[in-house]
Amino acid sequence: MRKLGGFLVAAGTALVGVYVVPTVYGAAMSRLAVAQFRAQSPANREWDSSRIRAYEQTLTLKFPPPEAILRVPRLSLEVPVLEGVSDVTMNRGAGHIPGTALPGQAGNFAIAGHRDGFFRSLKDVVAGDIIEVERPAPANAQGQSSPQTDRYVVRTMKIVAPSDTSALARTNESMLTLVTCYPFHYVGPAPQRYVVQAALLPTASQAIASLKTTSGD
Question: What pLDDT sits at residue 217?
């Protein structure tokens, strides 16, 4: 089976703590988790036929609302991020790797996906690409919440052995790590892992505050 296999098994023993936090999400965010596979989407045209069938089989199953929506605009990639990295979960979307930071938390937020499905287009990612993570913002005093988008810029891409889980290590800085199998078109269980890492970009208000601090105003 084409899955992350040993990489995620090793990661489970290398990381301390498992976050299993159910997230209540609005209908606008949940729609991607239950939508039919969109063959007309440029990012979906290269899917393996068996992966499409596996995705379609999940449409009869119920999943918790996604924790976030991951987008890479230049690659036309858009996928719901669900908790966990089981085969069923990653047939439906991308999976938040347990033990890594949650969306919006400081630290290393890591996501896994199938190389012959949603993450196929990562073969074309380049340094400088922007990755967006849309997530629910904290509720206000009235209990209302609206989506908030974090933007990351791709810094590095690397190929590692399944046993190398260093990319999932905890960090002080806020970053995003995407993991999939490699090579992308390998026939059979892929022998390596492809890792994309991106740094969180400051918001406009943070950038202005930083400039004021630097200038001494």
Answer: 57
> Which residue, 199, 175, 185, 165, is CA-closest to 7?
165
Using 50, 70 and 90 to split pLDDT, how confident is the model at 4? Answer: low
* SS3 call for 48: coil
Per CATH, the number for 6-215 is: 2.40.260.10
Tell me the C-alpha distance between 148 and 41, whole Å. 24
Identify the residue whose tokens are 């669900």: 82
* Cβ atoms of residues 163 and 10 within 8 Å: yes
Residue pair 75/132 in contact by the 8 Å Cβ criterion: no
- Dump pLDDT digits (tens) for 162-204: 999 999 999 999 999 999 999 999 888 899 999 999 999 997 5
* pLDDT tens track for 145-154: 678 999 999 9
Q: How far, in Å, CA of 210 to CA of 214, rounded?
A: 6
Give mean pLDDT, residues 132-145: 78
Which two three-digit tokens encode residue 115? 């190389």
**CA 186 to CA 114: how far, in whole Å?**
12
Q: Alpha-carbon distance 157 to 129, whole Å?
A: 11
pTM beyond 0.70, yes or no: yes
Q: What is the DSSP letter of 187?
A: S
